[in-house]
Description:
Layout (H helix, E strand, L loop, with lengths): L6 H10 L8 H4 L4 H12 L3 H4 L2 H5 L3 E2 L1 H11 L3 H5 L1 E3 L2 E3 H32 L4 H8 L3 H8 L1
Antiparallel strand pairs: 1-3, 2-3
Helix pairs in contact: 3-6, 8-9, 9-10
Amino acid sequence: MYKELDDTLVHLFIGNILDVCHTPDERLRQFPPDICFLLMCIKYAKDKEAFSRLRELTGTAVVSADTCETIAEYLGEPELLERGAETEGGRNMCKAIRDLVEDGRNEGRNEGIQLAKNVLRMAGEQIPAEEIARELSITKEEVEKILE
């Protein structure tokens, strides 16, 4: 696969792999599709909105099994391997990634609901906001916002 890269791309890859987050998308799109998808996954791993649009950003959704394994390993999400649908020529990662992002959103919602329940329960027990905040590892302002 690397034989396809010209000297300019090899230099870009070697010189910027650790700085992929600051490399413009246009430059990342110069790489072969699998490498582009992998680099965009690294770049947008913490930006859920952009991460969920990888197909649009990279122009592809299908990557090789090796690339899929690398992405799953990098993200610490082995279930991506199970979710990525097999297609001719590789795995379709976009549905797997969308599912992963949606799972994260649902998990966050559930944690928020549980936190609010704990705040309301403790407030009902007449525990001061400062103590609730300390006990639940949140700010006093967050406690007050929940109690509004």
